[in-house]
Amino acid sequence: MSQISIAQVEKSYQTRHGSVLALADVNLSIAEGEFVSLVGPSGCGKSTLLYMVGGFLKPDSGRIEVDGKLVQKPGLDRGLVFQQYALFPWLTVLQNIAYGLEAAGTPRKQRLAVAAEFVSMVGLKGFEHRYPRELSGGMQQRVALARTLSYDPKILLLDEPFGALDSQTRESMQDELLRICASMRKTVLMVTHDVNEAVYLSKRVVVMSRRPGTIVDEFPVDIDRS
Ligand code: ADP
Ligand code: ADP
């Protein structure tokens, strides 16, 4: 059974110039544990689709289900990571990560200990008490990833997660993500305009095109990552 099921989804945005059909006839099923990339030109609706799976936007018609249940709002079963890390500037690394745990209902006494585990997981030991502005871009993205992973969502929704990073940092983050996903068995849906990144990370690449945004192709990736 698929964990994420997208069927006959359509979505328009209302603008001053009228209605823009962003997505039409989108169908996609993703199994538990899969790593799927969505690629396609800017404006083809990749982010719109990702945010609908996240429950931040509603389709005009069609159905999006996660584990057989209609998605109607955001939930802790789905964790989002954005290109812009969206950390709280007034909280330290440890506090930013603990904030995710607060949202998940982890008791106050356990939060800092659990947050510390995730600090180690993403390689930020020693930086717990830094503020986001005191960190490099790659380190900030690691904090954002740790904050999302800390409440253990089954599904990771990634929107150009490494798009703002220089190529060397991006490569080390990509390997880190693969390692984390393999050990924590996540289902991942990632939006990227970088086909190389999609092929490097995912097991299946789904290709979209625009006017209106829809899925036009998909292919499996079978490379030796060891
Ligand atoms: P992508 O992520 O592939 O670049 P988006 O999902 O961001 O595509 O956008 C899909 C289409 O919907 C584009 O034509 C875009 O201009 C339009 N769109 C996205 N968000 C809005 C919005 N808030 N208001 C109006 N149009 C939007
Ligand atoms: P990354 O973004 O992957 O950490 P960088 O090249 O930006 O890569 O940084 C390399 C290393 O330099 C980091 O892992 C960290 O040890 C150190 N570093 C970077 N920025 C800072 C900073 N603002 N304060 C302290 N150490 C830093």
Automatic annotation (TrEMBL):
Alphabetical UniProt keywords: ATP-binding, Cell membrane, Membrane, Nucleotide-binding, Transport
GO-annotated molecular function: ATP binding; ATP hydrolysis activity
Pfam families: ABC_tran
One GO biological process term: quaternary ammonium group transport
Residue span(s) of domain ABC transporter: 4-226
Superkingdom to which the source organism belongs: Bacteria
Record keyword Membrane present: yes
Record InterPro entries: AAA+_ATPase, ABC_transporter-like_ATP-bd, ABC_transporter-like_CS, ABC_transporter_ATP-bind, P-loop_NTPase
Keyword Chaperone listed: no
Recorded family membership: Belongs to the ABC transporter superfamily.
The name this protein goes by in its record: Nitrate ABC transporter ATP-binding protein
